[in-house]
Amino acid sequence: MTSAAARLDALHRFAAENLHVAVSAPTVASADASFRSYWRVSDGAGTWIVMDAPPDKENTAPWLDIGARLHRAGLHTPAVLAADLNEGFVLMEDLGTRTYLPELNDATANALYEDACAALARMQSVDTAGLPVFDRAQIAMELELMPEWFLRRHLGFAPSCEQWDIIEAAFTFLVQSALEQPRCFMHRDYHSRNLLITAANNPGVIDFQGAMLGPCTYDLASLLRDCYIVWPHERVAAWAEQYRQRFDASADAATFRRWFDLIGLQRHIKVLGIFCRLWYRDGKSGYLLDLQRVLDYVLNVAQHYPELADFAALLRQAVGTRDLRIPNPESRIPAPCAP
Question: With CB atoms counted within 10 Å of each terminal CB, which end of the chain scores lower, N or C?
Fold first, then answer.
């Protein structure tokens, strides 16, 4: 029996033992950008999800801890029936297959985002004791993924000393803006692929294990400037302002919008690096299809801030006429010092 087959057999036994009935053979429910995968099993009366988080690659404890915090705050996270941290298995409620992304359109967006924003407001009151802090070092580390994996590995672009000065000036500007914001619970990946449409207490919230204490507009920017879907500028601005008026009195409209813009920009710069790393380091090419959308977000926001004009020009120069969906064939090698 192969290692993968043995792992799947162990997952099947774990589900059956904890449901106390024979269950169907596991079928793939989903996978994410980490080493976790999710499998659906049936006990004859309904379906369940089993998370497979190999303990040598993933730590299940943060997922369980954050899920419990969100559940106590009234968020709709998957109810956990059983967990084995040593083996890296979690048996949980099946929230279904209706992620936000394919069901968002002009007719549904207002209602779906209203639910998501209300859930986000509740989420921001979640207990943050012991959470890692989205501090200067963390923000800088995330930004630095872009020059390594997007510029160098994907584009084959090596910045000169003068160009590095431009990059560092932009990063310093973004770090300072992030640190100015009030801090609260931060999901860190609150977007249309991690929200599920549910009949009660919509939306179902998943993929929350990376939560930190961080800037108050981060998750809102992740939601409304989603890496997987784009809305007209005016509509996004209206949704963000509605959120501020209803749920966040920490700043006036202009300040809140600036925070929203710049933390979203920090996130998208990070994502340019991560999406490339997922291919060149981890062999997951699908995220390259989303690179152009993310780059457009970066350039569209940066053009509104004089402090970022040189940075935007540098990115345009680096990309040129390149089709970002096409991998760099010379860079599909393990990185000597992968971040």
Answer: N
What is the sign, positive or negative, of the torsion defined by CA atoms of 84, 193, 182, 75? negative
Q: Which amino acid is at 111?
A: A
Global pTM reads 0.93
Could you read off the pLDDT of 203-212 as tens digits, one per residue? 999 999 999 9
Euclidean distance between CA atoms 170 and 274, whole angstroms: 19
Q: What does the alpha-carbon distance between residue 103 and residue 166 come to, in Å, rounded to a whole number?
A: 40
Domain ranges of the chain: 3-93, 100-319
Confirm if 218 and 134 have CB atoms less than 8 A apart: yes
Using a 10 angstrom Cβ sphere, with 0-12 exposed, 13-18 middle and 19 or more buried, the burial of residue 187 is buried
Helix (H, G, I), strand (E, B) or coil at 325: coil
What's the CATH number for 100-319?
3.90.1200.10
- Alpha-carbon gap, residue 214 to 133, rounded angstroms: 6
Interior angle at CA 152, CA 33 and CA 144, nearest 5: 60
Mean confidence (pLDDT) of the chain: 95
What pLDDT is attached to residue 34? 72
33 vs 324: CA distance, rounded Å: 19
Instruction: Classify domain 3-93 by CATH architecture.
Output: 2-Layer Sandwich (3.30)
- How far apart are the C-alpha atoms of 167 and 152, rounded to whole Å? 13
Rounded CA-CA distance 116/53 in Å is: 27
Residue 83 in tokens? 């967990």
Residue 42 β-bridge partners: 47
Dist CA 262 CA 238 (whole Å):
17
pLDDT band at 157 (very low <50, low <70, confident <90, very high): very high
DSSP 85-102: TTTTEEEEE---S-BHHH
Could you say which DSSP state residue 251 is in? S
Taking the CA atoms of the chain, what radius of gyration do you get in angstroms? 21
Q: Around Cβ 244, how many Cβ atoms within 10 Å?
A: 22
SS3 227: coil
| Contact assessment for residue 339 and residue 306, using Cβ atoms and an 8 Å cutoff | no
